[in-house]
Fold this protein.
Amino acid sequence: MVRLSVLGTLSLPSAGPIQLLQRDYGQGGNLVSIIAGIHGDEYLGLYVVYRLIQWLESIEQSAYQLTGRIRIVGCANPLGALIGERFWPSDFTDINRIFPGYQAGEASQRLAHWIFGALKPSLLTMDLHNGVAMNELLHVRSYSRASWLQRGMIKMGLPVIWYQSFQEPSTRYLEVPGTVEGTLQYCLHQHGIENIVLCGGPDLDIKQGIRLFRALLRLLFHIEILHGPPLEESEPQAESRQVKTITPVLSRRAGLFLAHSTLGESVKKGSYLGETVDVQSGQVLDQTFSPVDGVLLSLRKQPMIGEGMLLARIA
């Protein structure tokens, strides 16, 4: 049976209040939390949450048992999601850069505070994201070195497992070098809470959503939050590529980027990835080649670029 509770309520100046809700399933045992929609323009995670809720609501009529607790914060940035805005619309704050938040702060800071408070008791938190400017190969990533979680990530059956390091440079939305401090992932890690990020996209692709949903279920079975007969697999699970190093490929010129490669493609050092052209003069401004051997984890979707923007990530 589901238990609904309000994490917090935000007043609006010219409309009714907005409530941030959580749904809890199960009683006793370890808690696993799933959160989606911290960035309002990322809808793939909302679909995964929808499928999970639908599945949990039908569990009493099935052969499956919930032996732990599952907490779902299904849409963490409701105003952003409504208008397709990545940031909190009233002050254009990236909620995923201000954790653990501040109870007495502005609306975005209070949202972060409520979210972190809901997730803090968890054995494991799963944070759902998708690319927007970038096409992303389905992958799971984590800073964790816990063997039980690393085994669980393998069980998920996603194409890529990225074992992250805090020593590696990070990138933000428009791929300007940034910092991981203030992200939910970093904040949970600093408080000793195991967590993973699931990513795909950029668009609300139903097939990708189903794959992420089933990967999530496999992990819940592996860590014994769920019990029951094995899931029926519609297709054989390929072996995941496990990587520790991600190499970013950045643009050297501003212009229109034309990709000549495919997401998930294996590339060699020196492989041709694409070209940047000037639409006003018809000139080729730059050609881009892979700096390493690997697989294309990310590839730019939004083709109008400036200097220093991310074109690809190679795992």
User: Anything to note?
Assistant: The chain has two domains: 3-242, 245-314. The first strand starts at residue 3 and ends at 12.
